[in-house]
Amino acid sequence: MLAVTGIPTAEDVEKAFPSEERLAQGPVVVVECYQSIPCNPCYTACRTGAIKEFEDINDLPTVDHSLCNGCTLCVSNCPGLSIMVVDMTYTEEEALLKIPYEFLPLPEAGQMVKGLDRAGQEICDVKVVRVVNSKALDKTPVISIAVKKDFVKLVRNIRMEG
Amino acid sequence: MMPVELLVIGGGPAGLCAAIQAAEMGSRVMIVDRNNALGGQLVKQTHMFFGSEKQYASKRGFDIAKLLLDKIANLSNIEVLEATTVLGVYEDGVVTLEKNGSYLKVKPKAMVVATGASEKALAFPNNDLPGIYGAGAVQTLMNEYGVKPGNSVLMVGAGNIGLIVSYQLMQAGVKVEAIVEGGPQIGGYLVHASKVRRMGVPIYTQHTVKAAYGKEVLEGVTLCRLDDQWQQIPGTEFDVKADVVCISVGLTPLSELLWQAGCQMKYVNSLGGFVPYRDDNLQTSVKGIFVAGDVSGVEEASSAMVEGYLAGLSAASYLGYKIYNMNELKSDLLLQLDSLRHGPVGDRIRKGIAELRIINEAAASKEA
Amino acid sequence: MRIEEHPILSFKRGKAVKFHYNDEEVLAFEGETIAAALHAAGIKTLSHSHEKNRPRGLYCAIGNCSSCIMEVNGEPNVRICVEMVHEGMVVKTQKGKGDIL
Known about the structure:
By secondary structure, chain A is an alpha+beta fold. Chain A contains 4 helices and 7 strands; from the N terminus they run αααβαββββββ. Chain A has one domain (about 1-160).
């Protein structure tokens, strides 16, 4: 389906997510890289050893979620913008998603925006908690959004207007 | 007649890397490019590149161009002729050039042809209406000159260029109505597809443009579905209003100069058209003529850069220049090319190139 | 039709210049092509085909296809997608194939 629509299926997303146990322990990376292409910057960006060295540059990334501390270094380094960080311990009801966002205008902390799913459909309102746009991110800002836990596997993008 | 040691034709990713490598080994290099500035299509690429650190992965195309141009500027044995068009390559090895209306003749001892590729067109009624542009044209207007190609765009082709340019259009504040792809699946990297899909842009596979319409300029298009034999299915037509149709249905090598030079050529569909036979050093069937980048087979810019370094190294070595670690360098470059083409996406490229290999010296014996 | 804000790129436009397009005056910036300047001014139809009088615009924008030819300072068949603008230049819609002499 993904190869026809560009939309990862619920099963694809499920496979990319860490275990419930790991999710319960705090921020962790979700790598949605479903196709063998020659690319490895996620490995070179990773400082904790969570993303393993590639035997073949065309391999899919191998992630040891137990070693990941959710630092987000890989998020802005992935040329496919396929990585986000999820923190299920943010509040009782909400998870924090840290997603790459390369559009203007950038949202501001505190702003309410629309949470979109992987097909660009509006799912729910989400609150922007933080916007990091440092020079090191090289024009791939990382936006932190608070999302109701029920929607954590659905929301993957934001829309500013409306 | 200007004596030239190594002539590099084309200052895109492949040509720049070829010039850098050959100059670093000691050759005197002249790069000619018909554009007013070097960099080729790299300067219009705003996305991060794939590959590994060696091919500048995760850096943006225009930043890679800056990096390569900096190296060129610091190599005093490279002479750059911009706004210069190569007119012909003659049997006696003479190459003729045009620069600002004046006619120049050079006789290089070796040549790297890195002329790149041009965009293919697509046949449908009214495909000549103003507003129907090649994807490269859209990138040029938008990323080089900061001019929007229009307000709403229909993208034709879901290969990497179609997907990337769709994303770039949205970054420039232009609405992308849809992406249409004739094939049953998305041809480009799926991560690129997902980037545009989650912005709400539909991707219609097995669809095509039935016709465009508009009086003096494009006003919209009629799309329809295709069956498994790529035939239009009557009754499936629907309308999309757009003031731009962006055509991104592949590239074809700009190989005219190689034909003129007498290089042995072959039509290889997976490489985009007629491409030259070459040996492991990227030397063609004509001694002293090397190739790199899209002119030798349409691929990603990452491979074009590695091919450029390899052709530069081979040309310098052909001219008699050496460096202590030349063999290591060469095997590393060959390894890089191999790994970039190793995966399932590179399968077609690998098979295509296998059809073009010149294996021994005897096959490459036609004198320049 | 010009991009003022961009998340990745910053456009350093050259000095503002004016040139003539048929009976109009068009504002442009040094360092850009005639095609870019006309497009920014909303002018997409650049000529008409000789036989069937069909409208013609640019297609490749890099000097390959010759779909964008116009008369520039009296010279016909100029590919305006690779010809830079200059203050006061005269750009005209070309009728017919143009005379060199």
